Amino acid sequence: MAEGILPLPQVDAARPVHRLIKLIPGILLLAAIGYLGKFIEQSISARAKADHLHIPNIEYVLWAILIGLAVSNTVGIPAVFQPGVATYEFWLKAGIVLLGSRFLLGDVVKLGGLSLTLVLLELAVAFFLMTLLGRWFKLKPKLTSLLAVGSAVCGVSAIIATKGAIDADDEDSSYAIAAILAIGAISLFTFPLIGHWLHLSDRAFGLWAGLAVDNTAEATAAGALYSDAAAKIAVLAKTTRNAMIGFVVLGYAIYWASRGQARAVGNKAAFLWQKFPKFVLGFLLLSVLATAAVFNQEQLGSLANLSRWAFLLTFAGVGLRTNIRELKAQGLRPFAVGAIAETSIALVTLAMVLIAAKAFNL
Amino acid sequence: MPQASHEHHKPKGIQLTTDWWAVSTALALALLVRIGFIRKIPW
User: Fold this and answer.
1) Are A92 and A38 in contact (CB under 8 A)?
2) Considering only CB atoms, which chain A residues are within 8 Å of B28?
3) How far A295 CA lies from chain B's nearest CA (Å)?
4) How far apart are the C-alpha atoms of A90 and B17, rounded to whole Å?
5) Exposed, middle or buried by CB within 10 Å (0-12, 13-18, 19+), for A258?
6) pLDDT over threshold 50, residue A138
7) Given this model, what pLDDT does residue A98 score?
8) Residues near A205 by beta carbon (within 8 Å), at least 6 away in sequence
9) Which of A62, A165, A248, A307 measures 20 to 30 Å from A56, CA to CA?
């Protein structure tokens, strides 16, 4: 999943206010870029309506990402903004938790169950393909493991979790992160185009984006580029995938420890809990509260809009943190392996989703 | 190889805390909406 790491929790106990103040410029930059994207979408749409023009609506998501990309790849992000920009992951997770209020628990169980089945299939395909390709392209075994985890589960944070667990090199994890980020950026733009071309329903597209786009921010953005409803389903499917992170990392940790190339895992339950993405619990809790009718309709609307505002900041961060020159500098081979595997995973998951859409009338 | 500049991606055991920050903030906002302190958020 998406997955920068925030400076926010590292608040110095002695000077927490000072540390929090440092976040403000970057958060304002995220808000300004996100709001500019929303403003552009609304302006174009209003103009088209006034002039009776039929212009395809370009969502604010795309504008926010493009503006972010333009800023980070031209002027760059000045140091004063960087701590705040890194909070995009915090907004992503907060947005997902708030989105939990839009799901009745029954839907979570039903769609989550379907997602889980598809996720397990996707994991098997991803591991098989990545391992095979890693051997063909003669990548280092630990780099292959990192790429496999990144493409199978949830992008960068899965790679980081696995890196620690299998004692992989910094260089390998940098390669894997760069490859997964580059592929995530490409998926973000291509998936909605393919979805429209195939006339996928919102649910089917959301499921596909959640299963096949690697980072949570990119998966959410790809869904939001399609429709609000697709974004909701993409988040649910991706969250299910994220929930598997502990099991996958544990599997790799045990494998590398058995080969004497990583520390043995002591308490496996504690390991699983440590790796489990806790925001999933918040998402479920809000879904439980919404199911128990704790909120009225107006309050549910407000929570959904709060979630949208949080995602707005996230999407600006997705553009800002993607530096094309740095991604290029990471080399072609891991990227090629990642791209071939990801394309195959995207095709296999698309087939699975099309079958599920027919079977379950999605 | 050029050193990746994804400094913020380096593992420092912060992710879990980030999750708790996000969960606490979202729940606090939900509580404020529930008690009516935050009314009607527009989009």
Assistant:
1) no
2) none
3) 6
4) 10
5) exposed
6) yes
7) 94
8) A191, A192, A195, A223, A226, A227, A230, A233, A234
9) A307
Name the residue in chain B with its Cα closest to that of A3. Answer: B9
* Alpha-carbon span A265 to A225, nearest angstrom: 41
Q: What pLDDT does B32 receive?
A: 96
| Tokens 């339950």 -> residue | A269
How far is residue B7's CA from residue A319's CA, in Å, rounded to a whole number?
Answer: 17
CB atoms within 10 A of CB A70: 13
- Measure CB to CB from residue B22 to each of A97, A323, A329 and give the nearest one: A97
pLDDT given for residue B8 in this prediction? 41
pLDDT greater at residue B3 or residue A330: A330
Distance CA A154, CA A150 (A): 6
Say whether residue B4 is in contact with chain A using an 8 A CB cutoff: yes
- Using the beta-carbon criterion (under 8 Å), do B23 and A101 form an inter-chain contact? no
Check B30 against A303: CB less than 8 A apart: yes
CA B42 to chain centroid, in Å, comes to 21
Encode pLDDT of A68-113 as tens digits: 989 988 999 999 999 999 898 899 899 999 999 988 888 888 888 8
- For A80, other C-beta atoms within 10 Å of its C-beta total 12
| Residue to test with chain B: of A38, A73, A77, A97, most B Cβ within 10 A | A97
**Cβ within 8 Å of residue B27, ≥6 positions away:** A97, A282, A285, A286
Q: What is the pLDDT of residues A31-75, one digit of tens each?
A: 999 999 999 989 988 888 888 877 767 778 888 988 998 998 899
Phi, psi of A348 (to 5 degrees): -65, -45
Confidence of residue A234 (pLDDT cuts 50, 70, 90): very high
Within an 8 Å CB–CB cutoff, is residue B37 touching chain A? no
A251-258: long-range contacts, CB 8 A cutoff, minimum separation 24: A252/A145, A252/A149, A252/A162, A252/A165, A252/A166, A253/A162, A253/A165, A253/A166, A255/A145, A255/A166, A256/A142, A256/A145, A256/A165, A256/A166, A256/A167
Q: Is the pTM of this model over 0.90?
A: no
Tell me which DSSP letter residue A10 carries. G
- Whether B35 contacts chain A with CB within 8 A: no
Tokens coding A163: 């890196």
